[in-house]
Write a structure and sequence with these properties.
Structural class: alpha+beta
Mean pLDDT: 87
Distance between the termini: 62 Å
Helix content: 10-25%
Number of strands: 13
Order of helices and strands: HEEEEEEEEEHEEEE
Number of helices: 2
Strand order of the largest sheet: 3-4-5-6
Strand content: 25-35%
Radius of gyration: 28 Å
Largest sheet: 4 strands, mixed
Length: about 210
């Protein structure tokens, strides 16, 4: 009977306490419902091991009985779904992708080739185009006459120039020479003498989030 009363008392105590700290006998952070803390200085020597599952598909809840919005797991089976952390949005599994693995192509523009263009420096014979500013302008969608989006779409995220790495994955070396791109997204190049523009005359630029 004493054991029953003790368990009942413990259950009531836990129910009355809205915030819990596991690992050390101190109050949890006021913003945390549950806090894991091993040492009194707020640090821990061990980590949190989330449930490990074998996901067979992003669209199937299995091995869970159903989709639950906010559910977080670690997939250990890379046969059909890559290993890693996943959260559920109520309809499917979505991988938590590290920010530095996100990349996208620069906006489409026509690079100037005429020496009369303002981007051309007659002293150095170099064209300079601030690719980052082009990205910022196009993603800002400031001109409603030359851009459109779906009715429920919000704004596109615009990163700072120092939050991106810049890559030129291809350029027509029969037309462009001494092509370079800076850490701030400034593209510079020269035009080869007697160049002929063909279907291969373009430049592929990729932005990667740092």
């Amino acid at each position: 009977m004493k054991k029953v009363l003790l368990l009942l008392s413990l259950s009531i105590s836990l129910c009355m306490q809205a915030q819990v700290t596991v690992g050390v006998g101190e109050a949890a952070n006021q913003s945390a419902l549950l806090e894991l803390r091993e040492n009194t200085d707020g640090t821990s020597n061990r980590g949190l091991l989330l449930p490990r599952v074998k996901l067979s598909s992003l669209s199937l809840s299995s091995p869970l009985p159903g989709h639950v919005n906010g559910m977080t797991v670690f997939n250990i089976d890379g046969t059909n779904v890559p290993q890693g952390f996943y959260y559920n949005d109520g309809t499917r599994w979505i991988q938590m992708v590290p920010q530095n693995s996100i990349f996208f192509y620069a906006p489409s523009i026509v690079l100037p080739t005429s020496v009369d263009d303002p981007s051309y420096n007659k002293d150095t014979q170099v064209f300079t185009v601030f690719i980052y500013n082009v990205y910022k302008s196009q993603f800002g969608m400031g001109d409603p006459l030359s851009s459109a989006k779906s009715p429920s779409a919000g704004a596109l995220p615009i990163l700072k120039s120092n939050e991106l790495d810049y890559f030129v994955t291809y350029y027509d070396n029969a037309v462009f020479s001494e092509l370079k791109i800076t850490n701030d997204g400034i593209l510079s190049y020269k035009m080869k003498s007697g160049f002929v523009i063909t279907a291969k005359t373009f430049v592929n630029i990729v932005f990667k989030v740092r």
